[in-house]
Structure formats: structure tokens, C-alpha cells
């Protein structure tokens, strides 16, 4: 379940200022955990996401806040320094993934033929 927390925060980071609904966040987390051999229970994930968002959006200084629309949440970038740090952390991870050099593993068909 701890992995769900990080995935929820990653989805909210990518969503930005507009935020996302509980249903949309749940679908993203469900798809992140779905594999060819394992299909988690969507209702369990939705329930976990809903409880996590409610629990972490109670105070004005919480990491997550409601957008004002029923069931929609976003990162609290105005009242929480942790949210700002989290956005920077995920942004840095994305840049590191892009910086990896590509290696050419293709075979040269004409190597050795002269």
C-alpha cells in the first residue's frame, strides 16, 4: 500500500493546478499496478485512494487540498512546502530519465565483409 501513496502523489504532480477527481486518480493508480499476470481489484484501489486523499487534505497546511469541486484534489502548493518539494523531486526524476544516453545494440550486417 505504501507504493500507492507515491503513485497518488505522482499523478497529482502531473495533474498540476487543476487537479483530478478521485475516479481519475484511481484509474491512473490502477493502470500503474496492472500487469499481464496481475490485475488488482479496482474497488480496493479506489477506496484506498479516497481514504488517502481525505486523510491528507484536512488542514490548510496539508500536502493535498480540495479544488473546490466535489471529489477533486490537487497538491497544496500554496500552504505546503512539502508539496513544492515533491513537485521538484518528481520533476528532477523525469529529467534524469530523459538524460540517459541511448546505446546502439544493432548488428552491423556488413562488418567483416570485404
Topology summary:
Blueprint: H1 2-15, E1 20-21, H2 22-33, H3 42-55, E2 64-66, E3 72-75, H4 81-98
Antiparallel strand pairs: 1-3, 2-3
Helix pairs in contact: 1-2, 2-3
Written account of the structure:
Strand 2 (about 65) and strand 3 form a beta hairpin. This protein is mostly helical. Strands 1-3-2 form a three-stranded antiparallel sheet. The model has no long low-confidence stretch (mean pLDDT about 80). It is elongated. It has four helices and three strands; from the N terminus they run αβααββα. It has helices spanning about 1-15, 20-35, 40-55, 80-100, and strands at about 20, 65, 70-75. Helix 1 (about 1-15) crosses helix 2 and helix 2 (about 20-35) crosses helix 3.
Low-confidence stretches are none
H and E string = HEHHEEH
Q: Characterize the overall form.
A: elongated
User: What is the typical, i.e. mean, pLDDT?
Assistant: 80
Q: How many runs of DSSP E, i.e. beta strands?
A: 3
- Count of individual helical segments: 4
Q: What share of residues are in beta strands?
A: 5-15%
Neighbour order of strands in the largest sheet: 1-3-2
Helix percentage: 40-55%
Structural class: mainly alpha
* N- to C-terminal distance: 60 Å
Biggest pleated sheet: 3 strands, antiparallel
Determine Rg (CA atoms, Å): 19 Å
Offer a few descriptive terms:
4 helices; mainly alpha; 51% helix; 114 residues
